[in-house]
Each structure stands twice: as structure tokens, then as C-alpha cells.
Design brief:
The chain has 132 residues and is mostly helical. The protein contains 3 helices and 2 strands, in the order ββααα. It has a two-stranded antiparallel ribbon. One of its GO terms (biological process) is cell division.
Length: 132
């Protein structure tokens, strides 16, 4: 076990932590110290217990806001890449062209229809030579 000395709201505290966690503990202690100092500046003249209470409430409020934002982000549908929309629209048009060819194709006894001129996919989409 390691021992870390921390200063929060002007008071020194000595805490034990697992080896290797000293930097993490100092970092989160600095966050608490900053909130405690913010509480003291904004409220002034309060007891240490009340200062820590306000610091804890401010940190809990920030955590609550972060959790709510994360929940909203998780619930929002992902954005669709415009290039994918272009390809899907091109494919839908190509399917309609092929459907029209099938509908107008001569009977099996007649000559096969000529190959249609095929539009290239949208230019923003890269295609490999194998997929062309």
C-alpha cells in the first residue's frame, strides 16, 4: 500500500491507496479541492463541513448532467453518411432500370434486348475494380 498526502480546501490529508494509484488519487483530489475552493468563493464564510457539502453537491450535479447527456447520446439515432445515401439512391435507380428492361424484354423466341447504358455510381463513393 502506498500513502499519499493530499491538500483539499487548505487542509492536509494522508490517505492510503494501492500501489500505482497515487497519481489517480492526486488527480481526483485536485478536482475535489477545486470544487471546495469554488464553493468557498461563491458562498463565503461557511464551515468546512458546509464547504465540502457544497463541493460534493456541485460535483454530483456535474455527474448527473454528464450521465443525462450520455443517455441522450446513446438514445439518438446514428447519423447516416451522405455517401451511403447516394449509393442507395443510385442502386434503387439501377434496380428500377433493370426492372423496366425485364418488363419490356421480348419473349424468349425474340432477340435479346440491347445492353443499357449504365450510369456510374455517385462520384463521392469509391468503388474497387472488382466491384465495378
Amino acid at each position: 500500500m502506498a500513502t499519499v498526502e493530499l491538500t483539499i480546501a487548505g487542509r492536509r490529508h494522508e490517505l492510503a491507496c494501492r500501489d500505482g494509484e497515487e497519481a489517480h488519487l492526486r488527480g481526483i483530489a485536485a478536482m475535489v479541492d477545486a470544487k471546495a475552493n469554488e464553493a468557498a468563493r461563491s458562498m463565503g464564510g461557511m464551515s468546512e463541513a458546509r464547504q465540502m457539502l457544497f463541493a460534493a453537491l456541485m460535483m454530483a450535479d456535474e455527474l448527473n448532467d454528464a450521465r443525462a447527456a450520455a443517455a441522450r447520446a446513446a438514445a439518438a439515432p446514428p447519423e447516416t453518411d451522405p455517401a451511403i445515401i447516394d449509393v442507395v439512391e443510385w442502386m434503387a435507380g439501377r434496380i428500377e432500370q433493370l426492372s423496366a428492361l425485364i418488363d419490356t424484354a421480348p419473349s424468349p423466341a425474340g432477340a435479346p434486348p440491347a445492353d443499357p447504358v449504365v450510369d456510374a455510381p455517385p462520384s463521392r463513393v469509391e468503388t474497387s475494380p472488382d466491384s465495378a
